[in-house]
Amino acid sequence: MENPIDLKGFIQIALVVKDIEKACKTWAELFGVPVPPIRVDEPSHNPNLTYRGKEAFYGLKFAVIDCRERGFVIELHEPDEHDSTFREFLDKHGNGVHHIGFEVGDRRDAIVGELENMGYALRTVGIYPGSSWTIVDTEEDLGVNLNIKPRA
Question: In the 3-class helix/strand/coil scheme, how is the chain assigned residue by residue?
């Protein structure tokens, strides 16, 4: 790649789970940390969130196990029944690692563009104040999707 992903930018492991309450409790017990709070996002129309090129409309339960002292976080996602990258993964694989995330700074567009040119489709793009997240469908070749972020 002309724009390789710097491993120093590794920031996250994201899991999709069927039962986030159980997963949070089990991970917390395993690591000896408090059970993380679970955020519940109801389905809503958001022009700044796409799934497979169309405006996304889905709900999600979301929790973060903070491992920032090690340089990353573990995200847990439990999707609702609506179409989303997380629902797609859960239906296809069950519980598992949906994506690994990298902070790439100003090289985000170049990296995403190069991945697209290599044949990897964009699954989801989300824009929020101060940053964005882009899930690139590398699952077939890499066994996991990539999240390319300009800033964490």
Answer: CCCCCCHHHEEEEEEECCCHHHHHHHHHHHHCCCCCCCEEECCCCCCCEEECCEECCCCEEEEEEEEHHHCEEEEEEEECCCCCHHHHHHHHHCCEEEEEEEECHHHHHHHHHHHHHCCCCEEEEEEECCEEEEEECCHHHHCCEEEEECCC
